[in-house]
């Protein structure tokens, strides 16, 4: 390491510290479970309807079977997470099976994510349109529909279910496209709220169903035997030509069970999210991961499994598939015991919950796809072009555009048919599970290191450990995936085509990138020296405490860096220029190498930053940190580096007060002990707003404020000083104080302070203030934050828990 | 001949599924016992 005050290497290359650990805010296992369940529990709204259309009335037993099997699949994910904290299919498969199969597995995962959005959006539309149509029917029965409306619709008003669902799904997708482009954060708080509301619905659903079973009886659910399987023509896929109608199930009894299981497997979609939230789990990580897994397993089993059984037990055969196949839980609400109005109200509640959870899944799909593609792009298998940040919002908008475009095409192609979407969706689900499990199996023999936990049972034969549990789960997944290839023709054609196209894109991109990166690496070596550091600290940067931290993102807006360099002396106070490489949900799940984080964009950005510093003849330190969100990264970096000041540019989407509030909130999340710092936001016209992040010290007495205000009123009457701020006067006063204290007036100041010290009582501020004539401010001078003494709000905490305007 | 090949392949798939299902039930039971112990605070060691 070079000297602490010399951020350049001996070869004059600029040293850049690249932190490789993503800066995260850790969450409890409840919140982690809520995030996963937002994805996993959404399938309860459509899985059983799809399965029953494919295999007949005994479908709920297969859904229950899949939910039980998902306990075992989750165990595999727990083992993989205990090995790779930054796990996920791509990382695990790449480690075990190499880049080619990793590309295949990630293509299947992308297919899963791309399909999650359309199926959730269309399903939410089905629930909403179903409720609207039912309301029309009820209103018409009571004669509440005017004759004119009746005439328009030639009978009871009725919306085209599939068409309206398509419109709804498109609207939700476009809404979240816009939000993701702007860079909304994945909120565990929001996920927890949604799951709390969902839990209320589940409790009412189960309790009311129990009462209905007691009062009205039930229809038995046929046992899952080959005799009770009734495959539709579509559910036999490519086999329907060779084995028409029911002959297949009769010829191969057990194969029929396997086919039915394959048609129900989408009920456990969303497990991958567990690997992605693992990174953010609070300590003790493994224990919390297991707790989250238990919560997820029990919840999804109770909700998805029991609601599937209850729907067949309570909804009559005559209407269950014909009317409620795509909104089965709504149907369940309508066939509860009790008055119709209560049932309609509950159905409305079901639709609200369905809308929340399913539209949330649309968002999760975009975030997840964006995260995975960002990850493979960082790994060099997708061109850097895709990662180029949005000029205004800094998000990877090109990837988001691609994902949303694919989702819109899927929604339009499906024409609102949930069954077709569900069939295709299962392809991505089963193959990403299979690849992950195969990789874990290979790693048992390839990687002999310590694991946090292993899927039981494992037996040792001749010194070789045989992972019985992993092999068992893999056999079920592989046999189901292979059978699905034959029986899900739409999924096979769409999934294989999609995966092949993505595989080709990845392979071609990788080759192009390899040449480009080799050249870029050489160029970069000439200018920068990359130093990898697992964490961000002062030692790795060689800087002193009390430094200035300058977050930068867009190389066209470095005005605030110029302002810092203009107003600071870098020999006395170090200036650290940092950029946060945003790792989206999913992407943050993986470990990143230095070259992955420091891309072309960061190179251009830092080249510009260094040019600015050179134009002032001053030195700066450079830092790249991967993070889930910029503000958390800034707060944590300022904390780690013991920065006294953070100087930021004006955000394109927030006011200065909002920026301060957001940074204050991020600061609040940092564990104690922590120190406060000052945030200065430099606007394009070089006006600087200053905020204090953290508890506000020192406390200013009212007399101090009055004195300051009177001084300000007088000073602003001077020509050319109309725009002076209160803090400018404080700065001037303190500067004078420091000069006097450090030079000729030292003895006198010390004497005065002793005379008016804590023992002697406060300084006579009131008397001094009285000596200054009062000047009423001109009405035109109610400018900005300095027009009123109240604006100073000494020690009031401002609008933020920890950010106060100065 | 074709039917024989298909039958063999189907039987292999069925065998994989049955063996896998039995093993998965064992996984379910053993990990369930561990989970039960952990939930009631009897797990002595934290491996993380």
Tell me roughly what share of residues is in helical segments of chain A. Answer: 55-70%
Largest sheet report of chain A: 9 strands, mixed
Tally of domains of chain A: 2
Helicity range of chain B: over 70%
Largest interface comes to: A-B, 39 and 27 residues
The averaged pLDDT of chain B comes out at 82
Helix segment count of chain A? 29
**Shape category of chain B:** rod-shaped
How much strand of chain A?
Answer: 5-15%
Strand adjacency order, main sheet of chain A: 4-1-7-6-5-8-9-10-11
Q: Kindly provide the radius of gyration of chain B, computed on alpha-carbon positions and rounded to a whole number of angstroms.
A: 19 Å
First and last CA, distance of chain A: 39 Å
Classify the oligomer.
heterodimer
**Bulk shape of chain A:** globular
Q: Strand portion of chain B, in percent? A: under 5%
What is the strand and helix layout of this fold?
The complex is a heterodimer of chains A (806) and B (48).
Chain A: E1 14-19, H1 29-40, H2 47-55, H3 59-83, H4 89-97, H5 99-141, H6 147-153, H7 161-182, H8 188-216, H9 247-251, H10 253-264, H11 272-278, H12 285-314, H13 317-324, H14 328-334, H15 340-378, H16 397-414, H17 418-446, E2 459-461, E3 464-466, H18 468-487, H19 489-527, E4 528-533, H20 538-541, E5 548-551, H21 559-567, E6 575-582, H22 594-597, H23 600-616, E7 621-627, H24 630-641, E8 645-649, H25 656-668, E9 677-682, E10 688-693, H26 702-715, H27 726-742, H28 746-755, H29 765-770, E11 803-805
Parallel strand pairs in A: 1-4, 1-7, 5-6, 5-8, 6-7, 8-9
Antiparallel strand pairs in A: 2-3, 9-10, 10-11
Helix pairs in contact in A: 1-8, 1-11, 1-12, 2-3, 2-10, 2-17, 3-11, 3-12, 3-17, 4-5, 4-17, 5-7, 5-15, 5-16, 5-17, 5-19, 7-15, 7-16, 8-12, 8-15, 10-18, 12-14, 13-14, 14-15, 15-16, 17-18, 17-19, 21-23, 24-25
Chain B: H1 2-39
């Amino acid at each position: 390491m070079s000297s602490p005050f010399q951020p350049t290497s001996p070869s004059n290359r600029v040293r850049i510290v690249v932190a490789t650990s993503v800066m995260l805010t850790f969450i409890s296992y409840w919140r982690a479970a809520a995030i996963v369940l937002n994805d996993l529990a959404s399938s309860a709204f459509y899985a059983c309807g799809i399965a029953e259309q494919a295999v007949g009335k005994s479908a709920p037993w297969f859904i229950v079977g899949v939910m039980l099997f998902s306990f075992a699949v989750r165990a595999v994910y727990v083992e993989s997470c205990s090995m790779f904290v930054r796990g996920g299919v791509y990382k695990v498969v790449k480690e075990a099976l190499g880049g080619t199969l990793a590309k295949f597995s990630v293509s299947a995962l992308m297919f899963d994510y791309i399909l999650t959005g359309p199926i959730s959006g269309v399903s939410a539309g089905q629930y909403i349109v179903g409720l609207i149509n039912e309301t029309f029917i009820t209103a018409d029965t009571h004669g509440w529909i005017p004759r004119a409306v009746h005439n328009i619709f030639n009978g009871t008003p009725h919306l085209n279910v599939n068409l309206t669902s398509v419109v709804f799904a498109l609207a939700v997708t476009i809404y979240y496209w816009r939000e993701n482009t702007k860079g909304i954060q994945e909120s565990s708080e929001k996920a927890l709220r949604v799951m709390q509301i969902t839990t209320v619905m589940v409790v009412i659903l189960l309790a009311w169903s129990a009462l209905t079973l007691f009062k009205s009886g039930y229809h038995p659910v046929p046992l899952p035997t080959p005799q009770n399987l009734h495959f539709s023509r579509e559910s036999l896929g490519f086999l329907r030509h060779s084995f028409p109608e029911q002959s297949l199930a009769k010829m191969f009894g057990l194969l029929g069970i396997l086919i039915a299981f394959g048609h129900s497997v989408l009920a456990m979609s969303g497990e991958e999210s567990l690997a992605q939230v693992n990174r953010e789990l609070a300590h003790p990580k493994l224990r919390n991961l297991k707790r989250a897994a238990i919560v997820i397993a029990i919840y999804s089993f109770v909700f998805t499994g029991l609601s599937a059984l209850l729907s067949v037990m309570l909804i009559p055969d005559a209407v269950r598939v014909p009317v409620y196949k795509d909104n089965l839980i709504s149907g369940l609400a309508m066939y509860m015991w009790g008055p119709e109005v209560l049932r309609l109200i509950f159905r409305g509640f079901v639709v609200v919950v369905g809308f929340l959870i399913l539209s949330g899944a649309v968002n999760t799909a975009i975030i997840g796809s964006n995260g995975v593609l960002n990850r493979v792009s960082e790994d060099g298998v997708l061109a850097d072009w895709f990662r180029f940040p949005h000029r205004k919002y800094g998000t990877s908008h090109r990837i988001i555009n691609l994902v949303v475009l694919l989702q819109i095409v899927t929604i339009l192609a499906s024409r609102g048919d949930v069954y077709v979407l569900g069939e295709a969706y299962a392809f991505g689900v089963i193959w990403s599970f299979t690849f992950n499990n195969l990789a874990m199996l290979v790693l048992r023999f390839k990687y002999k290191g310590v694991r946090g936990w292993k899927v039981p049972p494992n037996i040792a034969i001749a010194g070789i450990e045989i992972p019985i549990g992993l092999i068992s789960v893999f056999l079920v997944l592989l046999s189901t995936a292979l059978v699905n290839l034959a029986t899900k023709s739409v999924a096979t054609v769409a999934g294989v085509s999609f995966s092949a196209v993505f595989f080709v894109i990845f392979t071609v991109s990788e080759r192009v990138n390899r040449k480009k990166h080799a050249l870029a690496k050489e160029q970069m070596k000439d200018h920068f020296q990359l130093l990898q550091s697992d964490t961000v600290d002062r030692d790795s940067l060689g800087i002193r405490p009390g430094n200035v931290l300058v977050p930068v993102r867009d190389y066209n807006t470095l005005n605030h860096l110029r302002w810092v360099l203009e107003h600071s002396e870098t020999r006395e106070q170090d200036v650290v220029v940092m950029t946060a490489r945003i790792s989206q949900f999913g992407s943050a799940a993986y470990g990143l190498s230095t070259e992955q984080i420091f891309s072309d964009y960061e190179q251009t950005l830092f080249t510009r930053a260094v040019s600015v510093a050179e134009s002032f003849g001053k030195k700066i330190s450079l830092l790249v940190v991967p993070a889930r969100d910029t503000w958390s990264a800034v707060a944590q970096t300022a904390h780690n580096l013991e920065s006294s000041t953070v100087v930021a540019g004006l955000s394109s989407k927030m006011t200065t007060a909002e920026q301060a509030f957001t940074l204050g909130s991020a600061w609040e999340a940092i564990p104690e002990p922590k120190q406060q710092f000052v945030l200065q936001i430099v606007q394009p016209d070089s006006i600087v707003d200053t905020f204090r992040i953290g508890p506000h010290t020192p406390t200013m007495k009212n007399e101090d404020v009055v004195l300051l205000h009177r001084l300000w009123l007088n000073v602003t009457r001077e020509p050319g000083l109309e725009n002076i701020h209160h803090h400018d006067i404080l700065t001037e006063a303190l500067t004078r104080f420091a000069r006097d204290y450090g030079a000729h007036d030292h003895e006198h100041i010390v004497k005065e302070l002793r005379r008016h010290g804590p023992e002697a009582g406060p300084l006579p501020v009131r008397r001094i203030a009285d000596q200054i004539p009062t000047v009423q401010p001109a009405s035109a001078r109610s400018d900005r934050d300095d027009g009123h003494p109240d604006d100073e709000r000494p020690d009031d905490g401002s609008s933020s828990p920890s950010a106060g305007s100065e | 001949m074709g039917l024989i090949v298909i039958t063999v392949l189907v039987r292999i798939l069925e065998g994989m599924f049955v063996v896998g299902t039995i093993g998965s039930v064992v996984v379910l039971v053993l990990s369930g016992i561990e989970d039960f112990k952990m939930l009631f605070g009897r797990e002595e060691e934290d491996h993380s």
